[in-house]
Amino acid sequence: MTEPACRAHPGGLRDLHAAGHQIEAHGRWHRHALRLTPWQEWAQIAWHPHPDRRGPHLYRPPYGGHSLLTRPIAHLTGRQIALWDVESRDWTAQPAAALAAHTLAHIRPGSVILLHDGPQVTPELLGALLTGLRERGLTPVTLNDLRPHRIGLREGWARLRGSYGG
């Protein structure tokens, strides 16, 4: 979650946490790392919705964007970068059923699906995705339940093209 979203919906944040959802940081601002000064990027990565929480904190950079400083800052602030491999495209004007079909076509065991907390279509899309996952025998889990793995530059570019180009 971004800092403005947490400030705007503190009750929702508490409800999500109480329901057992994993809440991690998306930064203070929804800006690509290349549009931040180094000290802004430090503040972006170091911020967390639950600063008193123990253990590693995950950080999902807006747009998945990195600068040359992103990973070193993440390391120095005790963050791990969390990305996705399936983009739901819930930010487009497509109906939930079409978005769900597209998203489910790209899912494989261990996939991380990117959804957003702003679009009106997202709750309906999430319901359709959960149904589709159950029909495939897949169980949704938190990021802490997945084994982290590094991706190389080639896979990163392929994911970026797949998210926004096809």
UniProtKB/TrEMBL annotation:
Where in the numbering of this chain does the NodB homology domain appear?
A: 6-79
Per the record, the domain of life is: Bacteria
List the SUPFAM superfamilies hit by this protein, alphabetically. Answer: Glycoside hydrolase/deacetylase
Q: Name one GO biological process term.
A: xylan catabolic process
Q: Print the keywords alphabetically.
A: Carbohydrate metabolism, Glycosidase, Hydrolase, Polysaccharide degradation, Xylan degradation
What are this entry's molecular-function GO terms? hydrolase activity, acting on glycosyl bonds
The molecule here is called Bifunctional xylanase/deacetylase
Q: Which gene encodes it?
A: xynD
